[in-house]
Amino acid sequence: MFKASANKALEKNEKSFAELIQSMKDNQSKVTELIQGQTESAVKQAEGFIKTLEQDITNMLTLGADLQHLEMLSQTNNDVRFLERAVSLPSLTEYKKPYVFLVRPYNSFERDSMAVDELIEKLNTTSKLSLVTVSRKVKNTRILTLPPPQTRKKFLQYASKLTFNTNSAHESLILRNENKEAALFHYFNS
Fold first, then answer.
1. Which end of the chain is more exposed for a tag (fewer CB within 10 A), N or C?
2. 0.85 surpassed by pTM
3. What is Dmax (Cα atoms) for the chain?
4. Cβ atoms within 10 A of the Cβ of 66, count?
5. Is 112 left (phi over 0), alpha (psi -120 to 50) or beta?
6. Could you report the per-residue pLDDT of 31-72, keeping only the tens digit for each?
């Protein structure tokens, strides 16, 4: 009966920890997917911005070449040709649009990593505190209780030798009676 109960507790323990581990793996996958999604989005946005800049640079280079050609025409006496060419050029106002670069100091995933580290720290703390509680409950589970020792010999089976390190002891503790007793000593300042 005791073995069956212990086996049942072990099986439940194994199942519970397996579920906890699976839950952590699922959460890890979700965070990984979020980071990868953000990365892909940022890369696509940057690539689109680069394409726009490249196209604008190409347009400006073309316009620059056209303006140089127009300047050469202005130095000739062919006013009709100059006016025809000037009218066919696009308006310069469309090239005056400002470029705005949004600089974000935390554009890396450092904050995300810090949040995950904080979560892990909280889980570890909670886990350790819970383990202490579970350990106490397991230790306090009494299937059979032994009677207290009736003889000195049986009592001494549970005894252990204590040591006292005077270097790390509290300053108010002193040893006496051939280092077999510790006593509290108070200093009085007058």
1. C
2. no
3. 129
4. 15
5. alpha
6. 899 889 988 988 888 888 889 889 888 888 888 888 888 788
